[in-house]
Batch of 2 targets.
Target 1
Amino acid sequence: MVEKVQKNNLLQAWLVLTLAFLFGMSLAGVQTVLGPVIEENKIRETMEKVPVVVLGEAEAAKIAHSGASLGIEPSRIAVEKEGRTKFYNVYDAKFNDGKRAGWVAKASAQGYADKIELLVGFDAAVEKITGLFILDQKETPGLGNKIVEDQWRSQFTGKAVATALTVVKTGAKKTNEIDAISGATISSDCVTRMINQTIADLGEELKNRNTENQKGKE
Amino acid sequence: MADQPTAMERFVQGILPENPVYRQLLGLCPTLAVTNGMKPAITMACSVAFVLFCANIVTSLIRDLLKPHLRIVVFTLTIATFVTIADRFLAAYVYQMSKLLGPYIPLIIVNCLIICRCEVCASKQSAFVAGADAIGQSIGFGLALASIAAVRELLGTGGLFGVHLLPAAWPDWVIMVLPPGAFITLGLLLGAVNWYSSRKTKNA
């Protein structure tokens, strides 16, 4: 009987279980304290990147240099899909004279290793992609994490919104094709799919908002 | 227990005689990956030092409760907890650095250096010795990372900590900040350390 109790798996693991509980509690505490700070960092970075994603690096630097800044108005758009509601953070960027510079949407979805969070920018009429920025990723170093590099991201700039983008491994030839990163097809695919999904979910809504605003002005 | 090294011996051993990078060849993944500049190297060294110190102390305090077949689970659990704390802390207070280091901070969990110290020292000796061991090993790891990073950043960008030091005529050897530079530098420095210590033993 005693031997049976001693061999009980749960009893043997009491230290592991206790430690897991204690560590879990302390991590929850750390997250409660630091979570809001990290969230704030992310929001600050998003606000900094919105002009770059909408206007491009050079143009955004020019505006910042001249002392002006884009007015950025964040909003949340709910999208009903298959009975579930999905929320997007959308940033409406306007010049000082009230003219819309473009839209930026924040999207997040599962990548190869962990969740990828990105910003994708559109022009005011939502006809073209104006830029892409990766906010958060934990893809494989040396392969998948190349999604953050300018060289790869810049492929998306200027792509038309009307046709869905596809990832190809043999060199992009058509206008809606994106070169995969060699060794990281899944990461490339995930980012491209996220952008397609964002366009599908938000494209119409943003277009409507833009025409409504224009009508309002007339 | 008489043959176990004392706290002072543990401390000194970590710095050069048992340097984690140059002697034990442990933790080479971050060593190669984050040494393209002094700043990321120092951040990594500090994070490892924090995790190693805390993990060593906790492991040492519970060493009498450890069951042989469950010890690795306990080590990993302890290390993972402190790595997560370090990761969150960096994301909260040095956000850009945390983004630059990306997955390498979470990857400290699988750094053999820490599990090795838990196994070799902390699970057998008192918290005081384990703490001294952690500090010694951390200094050794930090020095190793800093030495590799200094060579790579200086030759690759002509400066240290982002400050330009070499004359403007210096053609930046871009390869030094790329992955091949890490292997070349590590190999050469390893050779230099071996040459130095073999000379010392011959003379002695």
Target 2
Amino acid sequence: MNRINTKKIILILGLLFLNTSLAYSDETYDNKLIIQSTTSTRDSGFYNFILPEFEKHYDIKVKVVAYGTGQAINNARNCNADILIVHSLYDEIDFVKNGYGIDRSDLMHNDFIIIGPENDPLNIASQKDVKTAFKKILLGESSFISRGDDSGTYKAETKIWEQIEVDPKDRKYKSYYESGQGMGATINIAIGMNGYTYTDRATWINFKNKINHKILFEKDPLSFNQYGIIRVSNEKCPNVNVKASKIFYNWMLSDIGKKLIVDYKVNNEQLFFIK
Amino acid sequence: MNNIFYDSINLLYTLDSYLLEVIGLSLYISLSALIISILISLPIASILSIKNFTGKSSITIIFNSLMSLPPVAVGVILYILISYNGPLGHLELLYTPSAMIFAQTILVIPIIVSLSKDSIDSCLNYYRDYLLSINANFLSIMKTILWEVRYKLLINILAGLGRALSEVGAIIIVGGNIDHLTRVMTTSIVLETSRGNLTKALGLGISLIIIALLINIILSLIKNRELEGNGEY
């Protein structure tokens, strides 16, 4: 009697399992497209907004994998992408020059901002430009959390440090920390330490746990944030789905794609812009 | 903070489709990995316990130390192997649930092998004289012993499932945390936390704990029921 019950339970569990495995079997069809993307575009919900529109018109299943720009580019170099959407112009051009990318275009842009505690102990909000704001933060008592990874945001931040000719990694600067993590995780740390950080606007607008932090400095020409779109070369990577990547690339840059980009809003704020 | 707890319980109560999808995928991947691991591990554990051969103790030590294999290391190694320009690239495994099952299987096997070998060892000592006297062959010894220690094996398997369900380091690398495809409970918790969406992250965390609890309750019910009137083991 007891044994029969065990068998029944195993049978039921087995059936349940079979049921779920049918629902989740891997997709094997050829019209799939892998986008290696920066985290900011994914975390902002941008792809959830535009991809359903794309998939409505084309029989192409798009998969988005999000990492910092440097890692996304490396993944594409390892042939794990058909399309690359990142934000570090120098690396993008390098990628195309070395034959890994075919076409590159400006896709959209927004800007980087400095966020910090509402009471703004270092008075960053009243600085005249982003360079003096950075200097002030580095020499101040509050902490500054840098990405410290290979991301486009970190590269943009590094450019500013270079322009004011300081090396923030120097041990004498006690306020500078590197998280080595994504933008959201870094904002979490900045809030936890009641410090400042340099972030792209899209990630910040989407961030749900702002507590007492807000935008303190914005709209400096140096803080321009350009996103580019690249088709990965099928000569370097024979596995690239050329047809699908061409369709997606052209669609993104078409009037329909552009309209979707400027139409995307979070909390009534536009996240990405086109010239 | 109280609000976050309240909202996340509310989220669970409404069981939104996102939550269900993620839970389903988690269970599918971890249970698949578990079943494959059991099929591979139990024969290995039996051989390690019953048979005598040179290098037996070194292999046992290796399996024991692999129990604490760091998931991220497994993730990176697997990523290199199944990258499209890697040695196993033609299998097109990267960023699929199969890759995640692969990773979890590697992590679970050493746990089930090591724990089960111990269970089989202790039972084998108890029956050694009898098995010698009837001159049984390996397969029949294995069958007899595995059946004898089935409840202990259940606990070992449970430990393996715990590892699979809670693991995040390996699957986030080989799965890519792709929405609707490779996003499971642990990777969503990482993502939602980084988005500052603590309600969702906590809701997922609580459901993960509840699932672990339910599995444990079911298994201990089976065990208790079967154990009635059963002596030593």
